[in-house]
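Entry 12.
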Amino acid sequence: MAEEILEQNNQLLDEPEMQAMVTAGVFVGRIKMKTHPRMRPNILATRNNIEIINLGKTLEKLGEAMEFVKARILAKANILLAGTQPAAEEGLLKLSKEFSLPAVTVRWLGGTMTNYRVISKRIEYFKKLKADDKAGVFAKYTKKEQLGIKKELEKLEQLMSGLENMTSRPDLLIVIDPVAHRSAVLEARKLGVPVVAYSNTDTDPDNVEYLIPGNTKARTSINWFLEKLSETIRESRKEVEKELLAAVAEKPKQ
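Predicted 3D structure (tokens):
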């Protein structure tokens, strides 16, 4: 299968990136009956009822999406990441930690974007509860009260630990599989917030601004995309730092 994919994408045979994508399984789409009709331009062939994604299209769309992400970072946009599939959690948490970006990896809370005022209060409450627990504030409470607080803290930890860095409503949503995160995409569309999505063949491309076709079921494929995203964020932030340093250098001394 891998050799066939490389051969059918012969215009890119010399690119090491193509081999890396094949190895990661980026080319594996959904079964034919689940494919969205508007995704046909991104499909190379069908093998054993499984859609084979055109990796040339993946690279093309990736380039366009990452240029947009770079532009938004340079404009100091607030980014929110979403990927609640088990295959996405580890990679997304790693990216979130490296760049201090908020990320939803367990369950999307309704209103995370559209009802940000309420969600932000819950985040602050969670942070305070965690700080008080660490400081031993609850030691004076009864065992029953402490147990209740512990259970509440565990629940909030699961739902909100990835959102602690979300200090304002997001200006950009980056999502792994918009079909699995329909609520998140709908909230973004309602607010006019652009969506960059790593998407399988069952996605309606009209629902997101920037769609990168790829396998959203395999951890290796998702990690391939997240590594490309990490490179873009890293390079963009370096440019932001250079601009800030240049601005400081040009500022006249008092």
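Annotation: The radius of gyration is 21 Å. The longest helix spans residues 219-250.
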